[in-house]
Amino acid sequence: MTNFDITSKTMDGMGPHGTKVGLLRVLGPTHVWALGVGIVLVGEYMGWNFAVGKGGAYAALIACWFAGILYTCVAMIDSEVTSTVASAGGQYTQAKHIIGPLMAFNVGLYLVFAYTMLEAANAITAGYLFSVVATMSGYEAALDQRPFIVLVIMFLAWLNYRGVLATLTFNLVITAIAFLAIIVLFLATSGIAGGGIMEHAALFEGYELPYGWIGVLAAMHFGLWFYLGIEGTTQAAEEVRSPARALPFGTLAGIMTLLIAASLTWYVSTGVLPWEFLGDGVNGSVAPLFDTARLSGSTGLIWLLGFGTLFATLASANGCINDASRAWFAMGRDKYLPGWFGAVHPKYRTPYRSIVFLVPIALIFALGAPLDQVITFSILSGLLGYTFMPLNIILFRRKWPLNSIKRGYEHPFHPLPAITLLTLCGVTFFAVFLGYGTQLVAMVGFYIVVSLWFHFWRYRFVNRGAQFTMPWPKPRGY
Amino acid sequence: MELWNWLEYAAWALSAAFGLHMLLDWLKTDSTYSEDVLTSSREGELEAMAEEHKGMTP
After folding, report:
1. What is the rounded CA–CA span in Å between residue B52 and residue A242?
2. What is the distance, to the nearest Å, from the Cα of residue A404 to the centroid of all Cα atoms in its chain?
3. Smallest Cα–Cα separation from A167: which of A327, A374, A23?
4. Residue A2's pLDDT is what?
5. Is A6 within a domain?
6. What CATH number does the domain containing A176 carry?
7. Res. A366: pLDDT tops 70
8. Are the beta carbons of A86 and B46 separated by less than 8 Å?
9. Of A87, A143, A345, the CB nearest to B29
10. Is residue A69 classed as helix, strand or coil in its secondary structure?
């Protein structure tokens, strides 16, 4: 029995069913929080403000809170399922157990695309930030951003390659600094600590809803940006010491953090920056929190929010590499992709081949694709994943009702969160269709083609005997 | 040459160093360990362990 003791130094990571080298269970709830919030917080620093351009400041606030409801449902549903299906791959593994192989294959691809595209978008943003710093320091020529984009991807991939504990501890530190920077900015500019500079009434007058309610609907697309990626906490499932405790705790603490950060971000930015400037994220305010700090006139705040912006960008890219590689690894391990990807590094205990394989893909998108297209494809893949979640939880509760299996967390008010999530996904699809219809159709077309490839060709290689790994009773009705 | 030009070259050099380190370690690892060991990870080991512990409890 001692051979199966997961705290044993000599048998660490080895299991009773053939695992000689497995992922390392070293993470706690704070790492789960750092993974989820770290991926998302860059959305507070930039990107969300396009919602203001679509429908004005109030539309952005409505989108912020509706998207907050959507993601609270995502966090609750994910916490229940992942604390029960605690394996790398997150939603992919959930889909495999609860729905079936074709759904799992699609969900796995949604995850890899959403995270790899987001990683590329973050690297592009980091390159841009370096060019801003160069300009601010008096450099007159145009900075070549490419070496900094490549450096961000290579350094973070290297960190991920070397071990999950260092990777997510690094994320914890830089994410905490980025979050605290938002709190400090709010305290310093709202009048709570020092002189207030908020001018909401004057800035909003006559522009409460400049494009009416259709503007509110259009703003929903970018409202997602406040929270996009919190579902990534599930990818840590196989590396946390106590999945049943750490995953729900880290995920729910994460969504609470983001709800606070999103509301404060909206409050300070709309109270200082005119909505036309704020809503133009290309030629106007690229980084609203940083611009707010600049208008405050405080050098300390400028530095703090400058570092906050860079740290949030790095934390997001770092978490994305972690998550995309786990999803790719899990699919390789089950032979949904070549089994070669299912390798674990015997020393660092990371899915090293998946990490390295995804590096050139991220580089191609970061160096060769425009930022808005990269972000749109990331959002669309994420949205397809969110649409799967309500179906997943409804089937999960139907096949394995409460008390039939042990759950780490049971989310309340079922099926209300699932129905709410499905409805909000429908609204957001419509909002995306208004702005990016062609990309939406292209993306759905792509997933149909790869689904056909999987069904008619790849599925014959899948390790079908090892599909269902949870020690659960037979599902109800089977 | 200005500081930022040096930083551009430094960024390229560091990127190459990180990439090279990963590639060399990858090749070394793949040549040191057998494929059976490297791809031996199985899903659900913790759950299986929990079940075995449960089964051994009198």
Report:
1. 17
2. 31
3. A23
4. 37
5. no
6. 1.20.1740.10
7. yes
8. yes
9. A345
10. helix
Chain B contacts in chain A segment 34-63 (CB below 8 A): none
Residues of B in contact with A470 (CB under 8 A): 44, 47
What the block records as the tokens of A413 is 């008010």
Helix (H, G, I), strand (E, B) or coil at A239: coil
Structural domain containing residue A218: 26-462
Q: What backbone phi and psi angles, to 5 degrees, belong to A241?
A: -70, -40
Pick from A6, A134, A333: CB nearest B41: A333
pTM for the model stands at 0.91
Structural domains counted in chain A: 1
Tell me what pLDDT residue B9 has.
Answer: 96
- Looking at the DSSP assignment, which residues form a beta bridge with residue A402? A405
Q: How far apart are CA A400 and CA A191, in angstroms?
A: 52
For residues A21-26, give the mean pLDDT.
91
Residue A91 and residue A301: Cα distance in Å, rounded? 39
Domain regions of chain B by residue span:
3-56
Tens digits of residue pLDDT in A326-342:
999 999 999 999 999 99
| Angle CA A382–A385–A388, to nearest 5 | 155
Q: Is the pLDDT of residue A248 over 60?
A: yes
Handedness of CA A331, A335, A336, A337 (dihedral sign): positive
Whether A195 is in a domain gets the answer yes
Does residue A174 lie in a domain region? yes
Strand partners, A27: A240
Tell me the per-residue pLDDT of A114-152, one tens digit each, with 9 for 90 and over: 999 999 999 999 999 999 899 988 888 889 999 999 999
Beta strands in A191-303 (DSSP E): none
SS3 A240: strand
Does a structural domain hold residue A3? no
Q: Is A144 on the interface with B (CB under 8 A)?
A: yes
ipTM for the predicted complex comes to 0.87
